[in-house]
Amino acid sequence: MRLGVIGGTGSAQLFGPGEVLALEPGPWGPVSAPLQRHRFGHAEVLFLARHGAPAGPTIPPHRINYRANLWAFRELGVDQVLGINAVGGITPPATPGRLVIPDQLIDYTWGREHTFTGNEVFPLQHVDFTQPFTRSLRDCLLAAGKASGLDLVPAGTYGATQGPRLETAAEIDRLERDGCDVVGMTAMPEAVLARELNIAYAICCVVVNRAAGRNPGGESIHAEIAASLGTGMADVKRLVMGMLAAH
Ligand code: HPA
Asked: Using a 6 Å cutoff on CB, does residue 91 contact ligand 1?
């Protein structure tokens, strides 16, 4: 298996240092960080830190060059990409520490470069986005979760907000009425750009806090994130390694 992985908050060092790949600059500007190659037996992971290299400044969600990042995978001939996303949990199954494999999303972001099309490089295209995540890749994740004994939430709707601020309680109420189970800031436009390039794409969300207004005990969101990020990411690593071992 040859898998692209885009690691978000807390996962920039998921696989440790790898072989840094030299890439020609593409038409969309610079990638978030150098891509790194990791080999695990017959499997290969090409890893990209979404918010930038751990040593550098953190790129906020609305400034990430999603187009350059996805384009780099295409240039390397990678045809399946897994995104790893720290999220807030809205509905009861999405409790801190759990992993969620969403099957739907709602996009609340704005002002981001969200398409490759409609310019001199790509003609206008209206991609089918009925199912925003690729079924076969989600199935691999779910099977690996089962085999690894992880208690995954097997479906759900991801609400993509603009950030970088967290939401108000009323905004989270609205997201819940809309049908969102988790909230994060980076799955869009990443998912649709992958679709435009015909790259299979799915995400593994790590619930790191209860979303705004969903914490009756009043513990701060940042304290929750600090408490659950480490264990959640260890489970993500188990999941990805399980998936690689099975393919
Ligand atoms: N809201 C939006 N994005 C997030 C959150 C949240 O509560 N937690 C982690 N990423």
From this structure: no
How many Å lie between the centroid of ligand 1 and the Cα of residue 173? Answer: 14
> In this structure, are residues 200 and 81 in contact, taking their beta carbons and an 8 Å threshold?
yes
Which one-letter amino acid corresponds to residue 125?
A: Q
The residue type found at 173 is D
Radius of gyration of the chain (CA): 17
Contact 196, 176 (CB under 8 A): no
Q: How far is it, in rounded angstroms, from Cα 30 to Cα 148?
A: 36
Torsion of CA 48, 50, 51, 52, to 10 degrees: 20
Is 48 a pocket residue for ligand 1 (Cβ < 6 Å)? no
Is the CB of 171 within 6 Å of ligand 1?
A: no
**How many structural domains does the chain have?**
1
Task: Render pLDDT for 188-205 as a digit per residue (tens, 0 to 9).
Answer: 999 999 999 999 999 999
Task: Answer yes or no: are the C-beta atoms of 107 and 160 closer than 8 Å.
Answer: yes
- Domain harbouring 29, CATH code: 3.40.50.1580
Please work out whether the CB of residue 229 comes within 6 Å of at least one atom of ligand 1: no
Q: Are the beta carbons of 164 and 69 closer than 8 angstroms?
A: no
Measured in Å, residue 185 CA sits from the centre of ligand 1 at: 7
Quick one: DSSP state of residue 57? P
Tens digits of residue pLDDT in 42-99: 999 999 999 998 888 899 999 999 999 999 999 999 999 999 999 999 999 999 999 9
Domain around 213: 2-245
Sign of CA pseudo-dihedral 31, 37, 40, 42? positive
